[in-house]
Amino acid sequence: MSIEAHHIRKTFGRFTALDGVDLQVPRGKLVALLGPSGSGKTTLLRIIAGLERADPDGRILFHGEEVTHMPAGRRRVGFVFQHYALFRHLTVFENIAFGLRVKRRRERPGESEIAARVRGLLALVQLEGLDRRYPHQLSGGQRQRVALARALAVDPKVLLLDEPFGALDAKVRKELRRWLRRFHDEIHLTTVFVTHDQEEALEIADEVVIMNQARVVQVGTPQEVYDRPASPFVYQFLGNVNVLAGPALGDLPGQHAAAVRAANGHIYVRPHDIEVARYEAGAPGIPAVIRHLHAAGPLVRLGLEQVQSREGVEVETSRAVAEDLHLQANDLVLLRVRQSRSFAEDYHI
Amino acid sequence: MEPPFPAGLTLSMAAAITTPLAVTHRAAALPRATHDAAWVRWLLTGIALLFVGFFLALPLAAVFTEALRRGLGAYLASFRDPDALAAIRLTLLAAAIAVPCNLVFGVAAAWAIAKFNFRGKSVLTTLIDLPFAVSPVISGLVYVLIFGLQGWLGPWLQDHDLRVIFAVPGIVLATIFVTFPFVARELIPLMQAQGNDEEYAAITLGAGGWQTFWHVTLPNIKWGLFYGVILCNARAMGEFGAVSVVSGHIRGETNTMPLHIEILYNEYNFVAAFAVASLLALLAIVTLVLKTFIEWKHAAARGDVS
Question: Is the ipTM of this complex over 0.90?
């Protein structure tokens, strides 16, 4: 079922959490709401779920049908909370069965049907045999999957996840997000998840909605937003970036000159889009001195200082290149920009 | 050379803390600078024990000694006095009304304060503490001013032949007022710490307000609630000041146990006075045992969560 949100505003006293947000989530897609903390993404998710009310004239539609004033319990949304919010006094089985047991008597399934449903869901989230455990006896990843199974028990039409992997350690987080992607590919439930981790959003989402300061700033597939960021904010948020000042770029290739002028003399360059060469007098490039060199991991990270402006630059290069050039701390090198972005409106980032 | 760890301290710590092994190991590993001299430790422990003995254990022992001074027969005979029985009945009645009232009020207030934001919330929170802040005598006087013959509602009550002051309703009202904060104060921090997420989860799963309360909120607060209730009950049965003002001390009618004890004592009927007092002392002991049990259960439940 598709989700549409129109003109969503939400203010808490003087604080504006959402400032006229529009959102379209196509049916069956996995969409990430990505933004820094305080950007309004969780508030938007809670408004979609019906846990918060938007200010008047905001509208929420599920599959074209207006649900703006429908209480959360009737919207058929599965909501997974950041800290799971499992019922701590109930077993895994009873947690998952909760949504079935609180149904009105004539809609409530019988005991054997409830048991069958719960077992099916436990199998779906790969937690068979843990039905008698209590939440405190489970690991973080297991609790997360119980929360998911509990949300799915009421047969929701959309699934909403608030920072689903936020409270997990790095390794489990990676495993679980890949699992969520495969899981989504199996059940094709329209899913929106909130995250502040761009890697997570870019890795598993079909579409990324980037939010900043109570607004949506860009929507697109992971590749679109990564390759064609709409603003310096997005560019910076989706990865490391260097801001280079125009005067330092005297030897910039010709096609950049106009763009740099338009951007008040600033260009944005990813660390892996800068090429390093040994210094030669008269050769093109920005002279810089290597200050730090970190070779742990697949890439070599260089921290450099530009000779003229004394400003810092970060560069990532492969181990092979670094070894070929015999790069060492305090070496004088030339930096050449392979690819850069400039934005006509210059924000401070 | 590190001097051997003094056995006395190890033992006293072992008695105080349930994991003596871990504690002694950690203490032994501490650098010398964090140790106090032996005489300091003995002095502090001695002062604490003397204080507890003098102010808590001695009076408790005195109550039972005095009550049993003339033997068990005289002790039991004290309870056959109809006035004593009436006082016990009245105390139980007042507690039986006040405790459920404060239970309902306390849960409602804690629920409102912990789970919602509304205007005047801080005023409500402060008002809940009011009975703790004012002298019980004043609490009693307030009811006399409102319901007494010269009070605001006095003439109207008189016309309709209703008695509040110097009657059971006044005693119940005063008891409710004085014991009003116990349940709410116990629950508010607990519910605030637990947050709203479980309730929200229940709501998204289709549960209604009552279902959420019965199946999610109440199980999470049950030990805190029980704790608040037993403290509330102990105070309701033991209250003297406020009840004294509104009671009128009519023997066999408006005397609660604490008031009855005072009268007996003033009449030099020491055995009977201490016999009734021993019931209140027993109530205190039972309350403390229950409290310890609840704290233990509660700590276990809470430890599991984190």
Answer: no
